[in-house]
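Before any further analysis, backbone shapes were mapped to integers, which produced the following:

***
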Amino acid sequence: MKKILMATLLLLLFTALSSYGKNLKPYILGAESASSVNETVAKLKNNLKSNNFKIVGVYSPAKKSSKRIIVVTSGDILASVKKFGGLRGFAATIRLAVTKEKSKVLVSYINLEYWGNAYYQKDFSKVQATYKKISARLKKSMSGLGTLKNTPFGSEDGEEPDDLQDYHYMIMMPYFEDVNELKTFKSHSEAVKKIEKNLKNSKIMSKVYRVDIPGTDLTLFGIGLFGEDGEGYFLPKIDFGHPKHTAFLPYELLVKGKDVVMLHGKYRIAISFPDLSMGTFMKISGTPGDIEDMLESLTK
């Protein structure tokens, strides 16, 4: 009886440890560079191109020279999005960041397994093999940048895949599918044209990228948010740890057929900062609405 009990306890312990080992964090610290931000960005861009990534946008969040975002896509990413369609359009790009923190320049990028589980949900297993190959190419893209790290970060304990597939910050908070529906147009092309025109004329927003998913009616925009309610306001209030969550940005806007939608701020911000305390979240309580107002103005 004692042997059976001991075996059961060992099995439970092994299962718990195995489950903990699968916990995922939102970002990967890829490398620590001894070069400047500009030099590191230039090297990283060359590496990404060499590893079959297409650069679709580069910008400085909150217009800070110490932070740079590089956004990429590739044929296999777009093929995965096309296969499943709909809100999977938000998975059409990969965000990388070069951030100067004190005397160090850090290169980070989103953890594809983390975000893949969040955006593909129960279908992630069907694209997991592709995502592993893409992750390997991202890791190779860190070569020659400095000291290689390959360290997940962004949450102390991480999140289990099953929890990410059904993620919400807390009870009564939005899930992935609870998007903000901003406007319905007569056609996909009319929606894209209106957003492009308004972005050109905007003084508080800029187009970081536009990605049209081939063979679909999906177009994903990445948008820099400036002005008094933009990145310069909310980023310092939530991104105060180290390494920085710079690859959280830019915010996205998806044209899905005739509809223009965005991920709810209380989902998109929370999943980017899963350890965010309620007290800190309350400091930016108006930000989800501010972002919605800014992006909705692009449809008018």
Observations:
- Residues 25-157+175-297 form a domain with the TATA-Binding Protein fold (CATH 3.30.310.70).
- The CA atoms of residues 10 and 16 lie 10 Å apart.
- The two ends are 72 Å apart (CA to CA).
